[in-house]
Design brief:
This protein is an alpha/beta fold. The protein is 41% helix and 19% strand. It is built from 19 helices and 21 strands. The strands form five sheets. It has a seven-stranded antiparallel sheet. It has a six-stranded parallel sheet with strand order 7-6-11-10-9-8. Helix 3 runs antiparallel to helix 7, helix 7 packs parallel to helix 14 and helix 12 packs parallel to helix 13. The longest helix has 25 residues. It is globular, with a radius of gyration of 26 Å.
């Protein structure tokens, strides 16, 4: 990692709220800095009551690499400008991450209250990562999950993500586009995402390209001819003509058909060709365009529909029989427009091997204590049936699961709701993985670098979710259960605290 990148990226590591350093100062003065802490990053609910899609773990691992590879002089340059306490400054300058990171991989399907990331490290190390982790994960979880909703609504028609201009800043545009790919989008338009993650960007023309050639039908025809002339032999040879600059049916479509014919573009063309409609009644216009394209012998011409689309509009267009080969979605994905704030949290669950819990008047805010991991259980048909959250150590349900024995899982909220999993009638997969051990990034982490691999993993996982559990409206509730020992630990801690209340 070069010095330039270190100096640029180290700011991400200290992109924190002040209280984390205020607390760290106190921990240091109280000689608590080496206490081993475990923090869980998780969320409490989703927009639709269903699942989310993990994205961002790769960048969290990169944070740890940056922290460990930044020199003491470079750390001092940053920390000396924001830390007044000399003892804390000296500690931070010398600090490296020496702990472990456990996480679900990018592309994993995840449900509320499941630990997506668990940091096990000396207290200050774990504490100062809180805001950087939440900053990365909340944005990418929101976008990957929104992309999942939109691509599920569009299925089997593919979706292209092109909302960079509406994203909340540079990093959001780049890593958010990456998250949209993991969430199921087929393609994207951001060239820095292509540079950083190796997923090719696509793009053709804007209205301004056509207007650059003048006003009206003749100018548009010249723009189309010029575009085809210079782009037909390119590697990314996608000849999609934007036809609604002046009049979609009366001018744009006619010009597009004539330009394809004049330039020898027909169904024998090896690349993609077709039209994009960005305004008006998309269902009506697409059907009219399809009819005219077919009549002109351009049956393989693609129809690309855009214009502030989201999952509801896409669903409606499909119900109306719109003729479409690909949907283009911008701000609905780029800022997760209907649910822009993903409520991920970062809570301490263990300190010096002693489980801790947070209580609240709001039941949803009561945390699950202890060092935990998550197992996904599949039924005989291969569909995901339930997730079981267990303690990492000394968990009887976990041992039964690993041995494939009869196992009873129970709903935390309703004691009378339980399910018996019989021996030989279920399979399981551990979805919590170790990516960093004693501060060293493990080889398994390399799979996170391949965004398309993460998307394939997500799509494969999605195929193992039953239709009623992945519908967009009122999805059938998926079982997320705590093991017997974890449940007992949780309620024993609650009872202990309640006994202290007057």
């Amino acid at each position: 990692m070069g010095r330039e990148r270190v100096l640029t990226d180290f700011a991400k590591v200290i992109n924190s709220d002040r209280y984390q350093y205020t607390e760290s100062d106190i921990f240091l003065m109280e000689n608590m800095e080496e206490k081993e802490a475990i923090f869980d990053m998780y969320f409490r609910k989703t927009e639709d009551g269903g699942f989310a899609v993990v994205s961002g773990v790769q960048e969290v691992i990169e944070l740890i690499e940056i922290l460990n590879e930044t020199s003491e002089d470079e750390k001092r340059m940053y920390f000396s400008k924001i830390i007044e306490e000399k003892h804390l400054l000296e500690y931070l300058v010398k600090m490296k991450f020496t702990g472990n990171l456990y996480a679900m991989r990018d592309g994993e399907i995840v449900y509320p209250n499941e630990p997506i990331i668990s940091i096990k490290a000396p207290l200050i190390q774990a504490k100062i990562l809180e805001t950087p982790i939440l900053n990365l994960m909340n944005m990418q979880l929101a976008i990957a999950t929104k992309a999942s909703r939109i691509t599920r609504a569009a299925h089997p028609i593919p979706v292209s993500s092109f909302g960079s201009r509406r994203a909340h800043g540079f990093d959001s545009a780049v890593s958010g586009t990456k998250a949209s790919i993991i969430g199921g989008c087929l393609s994207h338009s951001n060239i820095v995402t292509e540079y950083k993650y190796g997923v090719q960007s696509v793009g053709t023309m804007a209205h301004s390209f056509i207007q650059a050639f003048g006003v009206g039908a003749l100018a548009e025809k010249k723009a189309f001819d010029t575009f085809i002339k210079h782009r037909r032999e390119r590697k990314a040879n996608s000849l999609i003509l934007l036809i609604d600059t002046y009049n979609t049916l009366g001018i744009g479509l006619k010009n597009a058909i004539q330009s394809f014919k004049d330039n020898g573009i027909d169904d024998s063309y090896k690349g993609n060709y077709g039209i994009r409609i960005d305004s008006g009644d998309l269902a009506y216009l697409s059907k009219k365009c399809r009819k005219e394209l077919d009549a002109a012998g351009l049956k393989k011409a693609k129809i690309f529909l855009t214009n502030s689309l989201n999952e509801s509009l896409i669903k409606s267009l499909k119900e109306q029989g719109a003729c479409v080969d690909i949907f283009g979605v911008g701000d609905a994905i780029a800022v997760s427009k209907s649910n822009p704030c993903f409520g991920g949290v970062y809570k301490i669950v263990e300190i010096d091997y002693k489980p801790v819990i947070k209580l609240s008047e709001d039941v949803i805010k009561i945390s699950n204590p202890g060092f935990k991991e998550v197992y996904r259980i599949y039924d005989k048909e291969g569909f995901a049936y339930a997730d079981l959250i267990t303690l990492v150590n000394n968990d009887s349900d976990k041992e039964k699961l690993l041995r494939g024995e009869d196992l009873t899982i129970r709903d935390e909220k309703y004691e009378f709701k339980s399910s018996l999993l019989k021996k030989g009638e279920y399979t399981y997969k551990k979805i919590t993985r170790e990516f960093v051990k004693n501060g060293v990034v493990m080889e398994e982490s390399s799979q996170l670098m391949d965004v398309l691999n993460s998307r394939d993993y997500y799509l494969d996982s999605l195929n193992k979710i039953s239709e009623e559990r992945k519908r967009l409206e009122n999805p059938h509730q998926y079982k997320i259960d705590l093991s017997k020992d974890l449940l007992e630990l949780k309620y024993n801690l609650i009872k202990e605290i309640k006994s202290q209340i007057n």
